[in-house]
Amino acid sequence: MSESAAQTESASELRCIGCGQTALPDRFRCEHCRDLLEIIYPGWEDRGPGGLSSVALKRLWRDRRSSLDPADQSGVWRFREILPEIARPQIITIREGNTPVYELPHCAKSAGVDRLYAKHQGMNPTGSFKDTGMTVAASFARQAGYKWVACASTGNTSASMAAYAARGGLHSLVLIPDGKISWSKLSQSLDYGAITCQLKTDFDGCVRVLNEVVQRMPVYLLNSVNPYRVEGQKTSAFELLEQFGWEPPDHIIVPGGNLANSSAIGKAVREMKQLGFISRLPKISVIQAEGANPLVRTIRENGGEQLIAVHADTMATAIRIGNPASWKKALRVIRESGGTVEQVSEIEIAAAKAEIGAEGVGCEPASAVTLAGLKKLVMQGFVKPNDSVVLVLTGHVLKDSEYTLKFHRGDLFAETAFEKQSDVLKAQQRLPITLEPSVEAVIELLQSAEK
Ligand code: F0G
After folding, report:
1. Measured from the CB, is residue 137 less than 6 Å from ligand 1?
2. Nearest atom of ligand 1 to the alpha carbon of 128
3. pLDDT at 178 over 60
4. N or C: less crowded end of the chain, CB within 10 Å?
5. Which class for 402: exposed (0-12), middle (13-18), buried (19 or more C-beta within 10 A)?
6. Ligand 1 centre from 319 Cα, in Å?
7. How many angstroms separate the CA atoms of 373 and 377, rounded?
């Protein structure tokens, strides 16, 4: 089958995750029961994505990596048979995806597992996993004729949205919590030209305001309730499995904030199993910060019956979210894959981030919850020493250099409730050293470092 014929066949529909009714393509919630929507592909049932078998798709997706076509060079659009159909000229791509998998031998040892890998989504064009979903949702917005897009954000969605809007000739509006996101993320949305508003509230407050705004104005919402974003984020798991030769790892560990990424990765592995790409599901576990743990509480305290929203507080500002929109989707993923949830302390996050950094990889604090969580899961016996584990690192180390600097200077926890406990981090701290500009001084330092 020719490629153009293949592309026309992944027709999609929006379906409610609660009552199963279908919805119009630019909606976010079901008109009947207000639950979230997800994208389904009715044609797959008898013909497979793009009318192709899993064997043919695996080869096609790999071959596209050597193509000069911008859509093929994107690590999202090279998987276009499993995405909603977007006309080629409408695709906005900054060559997202195609992110590396790194082995982490030292972290493996300290966590107590033989094989540990990081899928580094921070290696995307704007430095976070958000780009993989944004390319799809922003392209859909342009195709649907919207002139404005908007999001509430803890900083990475806004950076990503601003970039894709600029590349696609769309205007963008960003609502962020005043003083609660990292400077680098704020600087990105300014640089890419978004109208950036700092609201005197938290992320959950920004979401509430924005939900009203988009109902009154012709502005397309690019928060992660947007089902097209979830579809794009799905490709990171297809790519991961491709990088593993389609042999699933035993565990995938994901940070949890608004809970869309875990939902997307779960949807991907579910689809891969249904389509015959893999024969078993990796267990997908979600790790939250103790101070922003609504999913952990929801599962532990009421068995997942009803969301327990919390007032969130953590220095891992990306996941400072108390009322996660996609909690039901994430819950389904955890249950269906046999994964679990865990929470980690501020000190555990800081220690884990420094360990990932010391492997020459680095990530932002929110991503480091994965390693901190893994350590707990190994101690509990949920992850076995000979299991293979993938940590999803969601953001680049330069996303929050202020955190890193404060950590190494030893003042990250100054005047906080964690000050006393932070002594355990001393061995990992590397102070910047100021020296006289003399050869002797440098040599002396080197000699003392060798001892
Ligand atoms: N890691 C990073 C670096 C993030 O920026 C986020 C979310 C998450 C993890 C959590 O992912 O929400 O899908 O569970 N950041 C959003 C933002 C909320 O606005 O940038 P999730």
Report:
1. no
2. 3
3. yes
4. C
5. exposed
6. 6
7. 6
Q: What is the mean pLDDT of residues 359-364?
A: 98
Long-range contacts of 63-72 (CB under 8 A, 24+ apart): 65/98, 70/95
pLDDT score of 321 more than 60 = yes
Per-residue pLDDT reduced to its tens digit, 96-147: 999 999 999 999 999 999 999 999 999 999 999 999 999 999 999 999 999 9
Distance CA 430, CA 444 (A): 18
At which residue do the structure tokens 């993989």 appear? 132
Q: Name the average pLDDT for the chain.
A: 96
pLDDT of residue 152: 98
- Whether the per-residue pLDDT at 265 is higher than 70: the answer is yes
Pocket probe for ligand 1: among 154, 164, 400, the residue whose CB has the most ligand atoms within 8 Å is 154
Question: Considering just the CA atoms, what is the radius of gyration of the chain in Å?
Answer: 22
Reported residue count of the chain is: 451
- pLDDT attached to residue 2: 41
Is 428's pLDDT higher than 90? Answer: yes
Question: pTM surpassing 0.90?
Answer: yes
Ligand 1 atom at minimal distance to the Cα of residue 157: 20
Question: What pLDDT, on the 0 to 100 scale, is given for residue 451?
Answer: 75
pLDDT over threshold 90, residue 223: yes
Which ligand 1 atom minimizes the distance to the CA of 152? 19
Pocket lining: 168 vs ligand 1, CB cutoff 6 Å: no
DSSP H or E stretch at residue 220: strand 219-221
